[in-house]
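Hi V.,

Quick status before I head out on leave. The structure for the redesign project is tokenized and pasted below; the design run finished overnight.
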């Protein structure tokens, strides 16, 4: 609790104690009128002097119709007509609501500003002679050698040059399990070195690092209001003058008719107390603020409340394939040896022939062979066909069907759904190896979770061939897919899908962030996965998933839906209670005490409801 909140709490307790003492003395001793007024003014001023001052200051600045003005008019009016206990109670209870509001906002700000702790105060730079120099993270430059001891935060992005250990990335990605690191592994700024002494080579300065991009995104997000927030702000500007006018009419017209001004002024004052819009003005933005903060703690960076609201109405999700739904690299899915040939022999021969190639297929074959390979000699790359090499004295061919046909090797073509590498040695067919870009481990579960959350259509747009796209779409339950698309064709397909969506429905595009920037801008909500290294994607995307975990997308939508549900609950509850009590007040069926409960009590309940968005537990994605 901040000092200002502690001071307000002390004032509330002091005013409540003084009010209790004055009220008891008034009841027991029947104080004279002048002393009664003076005694009640003491707790009134202790509780509300700052409200009176803010009201006067706002009037001088031309800002009349706000909650301070309404509260001042209501309480001063109650004092004038002799309702002293009600006036003091209204002010004390109003300040209690202000305290709850302040604590809620403080907690929500901590959820955002806690990200500032991602950045260490200092870093240790190693000089060429091995000496250590303590610097600010902002002073680090690409190429610097940084020393990380256990417990140190990574100051800038880099690559491990020496040492092994584990890092905690929970603050960045929400991932609870530490990641093992070794030489050659990338390190993201903001993560924490848990074990071992690590030397890392900086690949970016502070401004280009992940933590700086995260802080910039979250700070900017606070300035982008959702439609609900903007509506509430406009509503309050119109609503407050209207209720002021209604209260004035309620006090004036019936007083002239009934000749009982005290009664109707009292009703008008209750009307003013109840009409304060603070329950809406505070609780709605607080819910969006909490939603953005809660999402950031899960490694989901949402650029503003408008995009958080848009996520809650996603009806169709469009995905890039490579690197988004799939791993983005080849893996051996099947090995089909010819009769009399062992699988290990087939894989070993193919990998040996391809080992000098930098093609992704060569890397996948080497990983599948999993062992020492014999040397390859006389290696010749056959453009668009494969490789010819001498392995252990044999002339080996490894490539597509055209390569074997051109060399007169008899074989049976495979009806495969992906890339096929045919292998022959000394004109003898050894078999075929099927390679695929396999779907990510959690892709199927994540897409199923999107369906459960109400996403009606899942679409995949890819530049890959039909035989590569079709099995991925079938395996993951994709509703529609388009294959063989050039970048401009992918953009055209996005426009068609956008035009086909319903009026209140949202179209979401999800890409790996590297080459999808143009399409991200065409979607209602553009989501970039693992895009912290891509400035273009961060600029184009509305939502950034810090890592490549696709399960964060349904989590983001679940958070958005919960935020929208809480906002709707607050609006319906607050307006419903207020209008009901306003009607009762107009007919004289309630008093100031109930009016205060209808205002401050509703505000406190709405704020507490909004604070549910600040919980750090993982949202459920399996229900709507």
């Amino acid at each position: 609790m901040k000092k200002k909140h502690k001071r307000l709490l002390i004032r509330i307790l002091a005013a409540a104690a003084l009010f209790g003492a004055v009220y008891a003395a008034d009841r027991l001793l029947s104080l004279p009128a002048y002393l009664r007024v003076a005694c009640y003014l003491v707790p009134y001023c202790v509780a509300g002097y700052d409200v009176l001052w803010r009201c006067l200051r706002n009037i001088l600045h031309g800002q009349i119709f706000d909650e301070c003005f309404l509260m001042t008019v209501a309480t001063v009016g109650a004092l004038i007509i002799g309702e002293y206990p009600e006036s003091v109670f209204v002010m004390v209870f109003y300040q209690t609501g202000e305290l709850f509001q302040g604590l809620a906002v403080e907690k929500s700000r901590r959820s955002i500003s806690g990200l500032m702790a991602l950045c260490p105060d200092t870093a240790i730079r190693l000089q060429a002679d091995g000496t250590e120099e303590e610097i600010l993270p902002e002073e680090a430059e690409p190429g610097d050698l940084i020393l990380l001891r256990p417990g140190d935060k990574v100051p800038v992005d880099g690559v491990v040059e020496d040492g092994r250990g584990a890092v905690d990335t929970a603050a960045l990605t929400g991932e609870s399990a530490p990641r093992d690191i070794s030489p050659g592994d990338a390190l993201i700024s903001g993560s924490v070195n848990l074990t071992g002494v690590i030397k890392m080579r900086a690949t970016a300065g502070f401004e280009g690092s992940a933590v700086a991009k995260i802080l910039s995104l979250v700070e900017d997000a606070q300035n982008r209001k959702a439609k609900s927030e903007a509506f509430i702000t406009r509503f309050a500007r119109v609503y407050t003058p209207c209720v002021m006018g209604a209260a004035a009419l309620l006090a004036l017209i019936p007083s002239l008719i009934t000749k009982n001004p005290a009664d109707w002024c009292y009703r008008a004052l209750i009307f003013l107390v109840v009409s304060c819009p603070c329950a809406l003005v505070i609780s709605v933005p607080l819910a969006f603020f909490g939603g953005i903060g809660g999402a950031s703690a899960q490694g989901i960076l949402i650029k503003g409340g408008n995009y958080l609201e848009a996520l809650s109405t996603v009806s169709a999700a469009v995905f890039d394939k490579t690197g988004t739904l799939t791993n983005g690299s080849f893996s051996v899915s099947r090995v089909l040896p010819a009769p009399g040939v062992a699988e290990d022999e087939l894989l070993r021969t193919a990998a040996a022939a391809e080992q000098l190639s930098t093609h992704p297929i060569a890397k996948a074959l080497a990983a599948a062979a999993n062992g020492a390979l014999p040397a390859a000699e006389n290696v010749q790359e056959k453009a668009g066909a494969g490789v010819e090499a001498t392995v252990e004295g044999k002339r080996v061919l490894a490539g597509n069907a055209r390569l074997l046909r051109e060399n007169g090797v008899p074989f049976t073509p495979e009806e495969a759904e992906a890339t096929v590498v045919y292998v022959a040695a000394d004109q003898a067919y050894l078999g075929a190896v099927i390679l695929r870009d396999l779907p990510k481990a959690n892709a199927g579960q994540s897409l199923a979770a999107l369906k459960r959350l109400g996403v009606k259509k899942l679409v995949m747009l890819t530049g890959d061939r039909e035989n590569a796209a079709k099995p991925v779409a079938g395996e993951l339950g994709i509703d529609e897919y388009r294959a063989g698309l050039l970048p401009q064709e992918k953009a055209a397909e996005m426009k068609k899908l956008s035009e086909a969506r319903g009026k209140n429905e949202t179209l979401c595009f999800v890409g790996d962030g590297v080459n999808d920037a143009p399409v991200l801008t065409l979607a209602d909500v553009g989501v970039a996965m693992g895009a912290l290294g891509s400035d273009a994607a961060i600029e184009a995307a509305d939502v950034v998933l810090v890592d490549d975990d696709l399960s964060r997308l349904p989590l983001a939508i679940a958070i958005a839906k919960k935020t929208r549900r809480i906002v709707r609950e607050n609006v319906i509850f607050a307006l419903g209670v207020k209008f009901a009590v306003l009607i009762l007040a107009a007919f004289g069926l309630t008093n100031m005490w109930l009016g205060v409960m209808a205002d401050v009590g509703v505000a406190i309940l709405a704020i507490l409801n909004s604070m549910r968005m600040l919980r750090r537990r993982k949202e459920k994605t399996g229900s709507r």
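Above is the designed sequence. The CA atoms of residues 356 and 376 lie 8 Å apart.

G. will cover questions while I'm gone.

Best,
W.
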